[in-house]
User: Fold these one by one.
Assistant:
Number 1:
Amino acid sequence: MCHDHDSRPPIAPIAGGALDGERTVLTASDGNTLAAFRARPTKGRGVGIVILPDVRGLHPFYEELALRFAERGIDAVAIDYFGRTAGTGQRGEDFDHAPHVPRTTWAGIATDIAAGVDALRRDGIERVFTIGFCMGGRMSFLSSTLGLDLAGVIGMYGTLQGPWRNDAPAPLDRLDDVGSPVLGQFGGADEGITADAVSAFDRGLEERGIDHRIVTYPGAPHSFFDRKAVDYAKESAAAWDEILGFIEERTGP
């Protein structure tokens, strides 16, 4: 598992920040229905972000993260991966995601990502980013290959090489197809993502002239971006600043 059940984003709410958030259901182009959480700012900036969760699918961590983006004027939609196998109903902490993860496919997830992007664009939001965590980090990097005209993709400790639990390709194997700016953030003590893989990703993007920024936090583990991870509060704050800065540099404040 990427985060614990009681993990939450390490971002303080903005006092008095008015916004709107609700659970909803999206329909993908292949007819799949998937659960989602939509957060709308009181005053939007014409910027949106699709949030791709870790292996648990749509979880309160990502619903709260959507609200934190909305407080900063960024429309957000967090999507679920398991509409095809677990339906669209709300799930408790006892939901066993493990049997559902290997039943996902990259084709299905790609279609669901597009549904999230479409949901934002139907509301008039043209500048759309993706952000993902762990499983979602890999999927976010790969979303840059889908021809969705994304303003940028952000991956938080997304795996870069080798096979995964479904048939999603390795980002390192799809560098020639990347069509969006990339922000990758990694923990230097993450045993599952090697420094060599991160360096190869950075070098490959550079060689292809792709706008990107790769940040590694020395000593930080996998899934360090967590309110419970008090030992890495400084790294989490820096990562959040990187995320907002990456978006603002490509859209304006």
Number 2:
Amino acid sequence: MKSNWWKIICAAFLIYTIIAGFLIDVPRLPILHETIRNQFFHVCMWFAMMILFTVSIVFSIRHLSSGKQEYDTIASEATNTGIMFGVLGLITGSLWARYTWGAWWTNDVKLNGAAITMLTYFAYLVLRNALTDEQKRGKVSAVYNIFAYVMMFVFILIYPRMSDSLHPGNGGNPGFSKYDLDNTMRLVFYPAVIGWTLLGVWIMTLRIRIQKIKLQTEL
């Protein structure tokens, strides 16, 4: 029970996020209206994705320096879980765009950057599946993972701030924290970030355990 305390927190925060996210009062803003509640899902899922990708690159670097297979497994499963949250982020973002900007997808620099980022990480999956030698696969994947992580930062966090974008906090637009993430929303937003992130870690640890079991059965 002591080792599962963070799972209990994860479940509690996500239940709280879903219930409070749909019931609390939110700022009445033009265009956004009730869709602003998607911050508790779309935005927080992308936070979880970036944290998982950060975990992945840390263990990729550790694998390159030590050669331990365990580190490659952690890096791989953190990436796989991060990609899942990235896809969920794209889906929720597309829904948000449909009801605020009038289209499922617009020619927005951050949307295009997010698509490029996900394609980069999909290529990571293809690369791993194409290599059969375990040692070679680990090293090549680790090097590519570093490249993919840099691409994510460039296309999601840096380039949109240098160009015009419909997204808050980019292209001269004020960020959510400056004009519509009020104190009531913060009471849900921060637990949501923690909850989705812990869910990602939970899924990642389960996938790592599955990979370890597969490795033991193959020996």
